[in-house]
Amino acid sequence: GGGGGSKEVKEPVTGITFPGSIQAGGKSLELMGCGERKKKIVGPVAVNVYAIGMYVDQGPAIVAGKGASSEAAAAKVLSDGSFTKSLRLVMARTVNAERIGDALAEQIVPRVKGTGAPVEEFKGFFKGLDKLENQQVVIFTQSGSTLAVSAPGNRTSQFNSAPLCKALFDIYLGDKPVSDNAKKAMTQGLLKLCGGK
C-alpha cells in the first residue's frame, strides 16, 4: 500500500478533530474511533462536555482482535487487550478540572470495588489542575497495568493499577458506555482493522 499516514477524523457532534495517530507510551498509536460525551443538565436538555477518541498499538491489537466479529467481542478486545492503548479526551467546553475528575471517578468507583484502586489519587490529580479549557486535551495511556495521565501544562501522573485501567476503559467500552456513539465508532474501527473491511 502507498498510503501516507492516517487521516484525521472529525467527531461529528462536537466538530472536534482527532489526529489519525498519536505518540503515546513510547509508541505510535492508531485511532480506532471517537464520539461525544453529553451531560444532561435539565430534563431533555444536554450539553456536549468532551469528545473522546481511542488509539491502539496496531500490530498487537490486530493479533488480539483476530476472530472478533461482533461489536461486543470487539469491545472486549479493546477494553481487556494487553496492548498499549490511549483515550484522548478533548474538551468541548470549559469545565473545572475537578468536576471532570469527579465525574470520571464516579464511573470508576463501582467498577473497582474491593480492589484498592487509587481512586482518591486519581481524583487528586484533577483537583490539582485548574480549569480544562474548551479544546484542551487530556490523554490516558495504558501500558501493561500502568495508567499514565497527561494534562495541559505538562502535568502528568502515573497510576500503577490494573483495576483502574480496566475501569477507565470500561466507562467507554462496557455494557453501559457513557457514549454510545464512541463505543460504536471504536468497536467498528477495530473490526475494520482486523477484518480489512
Automatic annotation (TrEMBL):
- Domain Chalcone isomerase: from-to ranges: 13-186
Q: Which Gene3D superfamilies match?
A: 3.50.70.10
Which residue positions does the secretion signal occupy? none
Question: What are the protein's GO molecular function terms?
Answer: intramolecular lyase activity
Q: Which Pfam families does the entry mention?
A: Chalcone_3 (PF16036)
- Give the superkingdom in one word: Eukaryota
Protein name as annotated: Chalcone isomerase domain-containing protein
Q: What is the species of this protein?
A: Hemiselmis andersenii (Cryptophyte alga)
Q: What is the lineage of its organism?
A: Eukaryota, Cryptophyceae, Cryptomonadales, Hemiselmidaceae, Hemiselmis
